[in-house]
Amino acid sequence: MELKKQVGYEAAKLVKDGDIVGLGTGSTTLHFIERLGERVKEEELDIMGVPTSYQSFFLARDLGIKITTLEENDVDLAVDGADEVDPDLNLIKGGGAAHTLEKIVDSSAARFVVVVDDSKLVDKLGKMPIPLEVMPAAYRVVSNRLRDMGGVPSIRMAERKDGPVITDNNNFLLEVAFKEIPDPKFLEKELNSIPGVIENGIFSGYVDEVLVGTQEGVKVLK
Ligand code: 5RP
């Protein structure tokens, strides 16, 4: 079985009847949500999902998973993907431009489980640039501040290259590369202290466990 599917299906086993489930975004959580939808039908599970994006909202809704919000319920278990995972279980997320709501939902969950294939494991964060959701009016001044911090920012363009990516919250997405990230927690706070930055894609200190899809089966990192 494809590794992303293997690990998504494994995570779907963690959901218990009555749970409020944070529904992550991306091609790995897609398998989690699909399998969860099957379990809801087969086992008549009484669960509700809190989506982290329009992608997960529409997917879950179409599969018959009841939807709720953080206004109404606390999340028991959140399952989400990641772009990079370091040995301390710090993450870079935002490959799908959904990291703002992902961080709100995932960090609020009683248990936050990450699902990745083994290509996402890194010794140190920073192989990919860090995504930052930025208010459109602020993107030039935020870019200047990022350069002052030693970063190399660029705006993420839509696939057709005819304009910038627009997030679910109607903002732009900057990506900033740093030569190294010695202290992810510090950088996460620093980036969020720039006026105009809504949220950055470093997730430090929120993860309870990581399920890793490998050719030898699913491994658990804690
Ligand atoms: C979206 C994310 C995704 O979870 C991350 O990009 C991983 O995606 P995939 O499972 O498709 O590799 O952070 O903002």
TrEMBL record:
Per UniProt, the enzyme's principal EC class comes to isomerase
Q: Which UniProt keywords apply?
A: Isomerase
* Pathway connected to this protein: Carbohydrate degradation; pentose phosphate pathway; D-ribose 5-phosphate from D-ribulose 5-phosphate (non-oxidative stage): step 1/1
Q: Which of this chain's residues are annotated to bind substrate?
A: 25-28, 80-83, 93-96, 120
Gene Ontology annotations of biological process type: D-ribose metabolic process; pentose-phosphate shunt, non-oxidative branch
**What Gene Ontology molecular-function terms does this entry list?**
ribose-5-phosphate isomerase activity
According to its UniProt record, what is one Pfam family this protein matches?
Rib_5-P_isom_A
Active site location: 102 (proton acceptor)
- For this protein, the Enzyme Commission number is 5.3.1.6
Gene3D superfamilies, alphabetized: 3.30.70.260, 3.40.50.1360
* SUBUNIT field: Homotetramer. Homodimer.
Q: Which NCBIfam families match?
A: PRK00702.1, rpiA
What the record says about family reads: Belongs to the ribose 5-phosphate isomerase family.
Q: Which HAMAP family does the UniProt record give? A: Rib_5P_isom_A
PANTHER family per record: RIBOSE-5-PHOSPHATE ISOMERASE (PTHR11934)
Q: What does this protein do?
A: Catalyzes the reversible conversion of ribose-5-phosphate to ribulose 5-phosphate.
Please give the name of this protein: Ribose-5-phosphate isomerase A
List the taxonomic lineage.
Archaea, Methanobacteriati, Methanobacteriota, Methanomada group, Methanobacteria
